[in-house]
Amino acid sequence: MKKLKRRLKIASVLIMTTVFMTPVKAQTKPIEVEIPVHVDANEHVITITSPDAPLPVNRTQTLKNETKSFTVTLYEPKKYHYTLIDRNGQQFKTVIFVWTDNEGELQATISSTQDGEHKTDISFEEPKKEQKTTTYQQPKTGDSTNIQHYILLLMLSLPIILLMIKKRKKKE
């Protein structure tokens, strides 16, 4: 009977640990990232959108032969996806990679593509006669489960399970 009670206690501790385990995030100072946009010659109205990231206060800007920036404030390390598009259908897919450095500060880099080609800067030009736009969007699965916690829990409970098996073999 004592063995059964002990096993039930261990099992309940393991179950409670699994159910109530939540990730701990340290509070870090947010980072403001500027997405520079350049327009040559004629006036362009540029709009920034995102399916999963915070947007800047000014989501639309009118530029004519100048460079301006969209400023976004980001609070955690992850990938942020943006699309910059003008009235003519030209668009840039932009990804901001945010990570935490050794001092705990957020750092960021920007990567942009246009029609699948990597671009070093976001520069809108006059539309060409035959411009082809791609409307591919990455599918969303909705699964954001972090399995690292479950693997850690398994690793922590493995010695207890092995100890129980060893005791059982000794008694047999």
Brief overview:
25% of the residues lie in helices and 35% in strands. It has helices at 2-20, 148-171; strands spanning 31-39, 44-49, 60-63, 66-74, 79-86, 91-100, 106-114, 117-119, 122-124. The strands form two sheets. Strands 3-2-5-6-7-8 form a six-stranded antiparallel β-sheet, with no helix packed on it. The chain has a three-stranded mixed β-sheet with strand order 4-1-9, with no helix packed on it.
How many E strands?
9
Q: Number of domains in the coordinates?
A: 2
Oligomeric status of the shown chains?
single chain
CATH class of the largest domain: Mainly Beta
Q: In percent, how much strand structure appears in the residues?
A: 35-45%
CATH topology of the largest domain: Immunoglobulin-like
Between the first and last Cα atoms, what is the distance in angstroms? 17 Å
Number of helices, where a helix is a run of at least 4 consecutive DSSP H or I residues: 2
Overall mean confidence score, pLDDT: 84
Backbone shape: elongated
User: What would you report as the Rg, rounded to the nearest angstrom?
Assistant: 26 Å
What CATH architecture of the largest domain would you give?
A: Sandwich
**Main β-sheet description:** 6 strands, antiparallel
Helix/sheet category: alpha+beta
Low-confidence segments, given as residue ranges, are: none
**Strand order in space, largest sheet:** 3-2-5-6-7-8
N-to-C SSE series?
A: HEEEEEEEEEH
Helix-residue proportion: 25-40%
